[in-house]
C-alpha cells in the first residue's frame, strides 16, 4: 500500500510544478495576449506588461480593419479616390514593409483584400455563414486590389486602385510582438515570452533553459509537438481552426487566396520558425500565410520569405516539414510523428 | 540437464499468440501513456482577470460572467470542459473534455479561457 | 442432540496441503526484496494453476481465496487495504483463469493461462487502486510497466507449472 503511494507520489510530484514567472493577459487584436516575465519583481513585471498592453491597445485601435481608427480613415480615403492621404510615420513604415513582403511573396500575402475578407464575413467579432451573389466576388476579383497599387512616402499614401481596402490582420500581431519585445527590453526585462494569439516570441531564457513552445494540433485539443525557442526567435501558426465557419459541410476559414478570392481549403495549419532578425515577429505572422495559401510552393516561399523552419498540415492531415524544423522539434505523440514527411 | 529440459516442452502455438498479443498491448499502452501528462489544475480567466485556479479532482460547476453572458464550466474527476456558453459558434463547447497539461480552450466571444496546468513540457502554445 | 460429523477425505487433505504450500510460497515471497514497488513474482500462483490442472477450477478458486485469507491473517492485514487489494487481484485472475481454461488445451498450455491470469491480477488491482485507494487518473500511468512485469513473471510461473505437470496437463 505505502509502496503504491510512494510510486504515485513520484509520478504526481511534477504535476503541480508551475514556473514562478509573472503572467499577464489581455484580450487585444481579437485574441488572447499573454506576457510572461521571469526576472523582475511581481510589481515591476506588472508595470512592464502594462506598458506593453497600453501600446497594444493603441495599435489595436490604429490598425483595426473595420472599426474607427487610422487604418479605417485610410481605407475610406482610398475608396473616395483621394490621391494624397496623410498618414502617421508608424503607419507609413508599416505599409511600406507590408508592401515589400507582399511583393516578396508574389502577391500571395495581400493585405489589400480587405473587401474580400469582409465579403466572406470575417469583419465581425463572430463568424457565421454568409450569403452573397457570385457577381459580387467576380467584381472584386476583377478589380485586383494589390499592395503595388499603393505609393507610400514618409507621410503620404496614394492608391491607384479604389478597391484597395487594407486589412493588416496577418501583420499586426507580428508587428506587436516586435514592439512588445522592444518595450520589455526598455523596462530592463531580460527573460520573457510574449504570445499573441499563437504568435510567440522569446527573450532570454526560462529558469536557465530555453523557452519551450508547443505547436497546436489543428484537429485535436492540445499540442502535437514542442520545440525550444531561443532568445530572439519567433514562431507563428496560421490555421483554419481558430477563425472559421462551416457551411454545407465545408470549412470556410479567414485566410483568403487572393488568386481565387476563395477561403483556402487545402491546408489545416502552417507553423513557421523565424531566426532572430529585425522583424522576426512580423515574419512569424506574415510568412505562414503565403505557404498556407499555396502549399505546393511551400519550400520556395519559405526561402524567399526568410523562414528558418516550417511545418505544414494539409487537409488530409498529412504533415510535411523541412529538416531544420525536424531537428528542433519533439513530437508529443508517436502517432503524429508517423504522419510526418520531410521536405528538402 | 537433458532430462530437465526434456520435461520443459516448447511453447504451444497459442502460447506464442498470447505472449505476442500481451506484449503488443503493453507496448501500445506504453507508447500512448508515456506521453500522457495529466493536468492537475486548471486556471479560468475572464478577460485579464483570473477567476481562479481549481484542482481538477473534484466535481464542480463554475459559472463565469463574460462579455456576452454566462459560460458554465464543469470540472469532473480530472477533466474540465465548457458545458454551456453564450457564444454563437460553440467552438469552446465542442472541444469537449480536456485533461492534458498545456491544453487551452478559449471562448473568444465571451472572453473566457481555461488553461490546464501541470508539467506539459512547454511554456506556451503556438496555435 | 444432533452431532455433526465432518468426514475428511484424502482430497481435502491434498487441498489443505496445497493451500499450505501456496501460503508458504506467499510468505516466502514477502521476504524477497522487491525490485520495484508493486512488483512481485506471485509464485503462490504456481500452486493455484497447478491445482486448476489437477483438480479443476472450483478447487483452484478455494486454494487461491484461502491463500489470501490465511496470508492476511498471518500478516495481521485482514480487512486492511492490502487485504482488499490481494483479494481483488485473486478474484480478477480467477475470472481470467475461468475464461482462459475454455481455450483449447491443444493450443494453449499453462503458460498462456499463467500470463493471462497475471495480467488480469495486476489490472484488477490497479483498477481497485484507481477507484478506491488513490482515486487520481495518474494511477493508470503505472499500468504499462506493471503489465510488462506481469507478463515476465506470468511466463516464468507458467513454464514452471508446465514443467511440474510434465505432459499430464489435461485440464480437470
TrEMBL record, chain A:
Keywords: FAD, Flavoprotein, Magnesium, Metal-binding, Transferase
Record's catalysed reaction(s): L-threonyl-[protein] + FAD = FMN-L-threonyl-[protein] + AMP + H(+)
Cofactor dependency: Mg(2+)
Keyword Metal-binding carried by entry: yes
EC number from the UniProt entry: 2.7.1.180
Superkingdom, taxonomy of origin: Bacteria
SUPFAM superfamilies, alphabetized: ApbE-like
A Pfam family of this chain: ApbE
Classification via InterPro entries: ApbE, ApbE-like_sf
Single annotated GO MF: transferase activity
Homology family: Belongs to the ApbE family.
Protein name in UniProt: FAD:protein FMN transferase
The species this protein was found in: Methylophilus aquaticus
Automatic annotation (TrEMBL), chain B:
Gene3D superfamilies in alphabetical order: N-utilization substance G protein NusG, insert domain
Keyword Transmembrane: yes
InterPro entries: NusG_2_sf
Keyword vocabulary terms for this entry: Membrane, Transmembrane, Transmembrane helix
Residue ranges of the TM segments: 12-30
Superkingdom, taxonomy of origin: Bacteria
Protein name per its UniProtKB record: NusG domain II-containing protein
Organism: Methylophilus aquaticus
Automatic annotation (TrEMBL), chain C:
Cross-referenced Pfam families: Hpre_diP_synt_I
Record field: transmembrane: 15-36, 42-66, 78-100, 106-128, 140-165
Keywords of the record: Membrane, Transmembrane, Transmembrane helix
InterPro entries, per database record: Hpre_diP_synt_I, Hpre_diP_synth_I
Coiled coil ranges: none
Protein name per its UniProtKB record: Gx transporter family protein
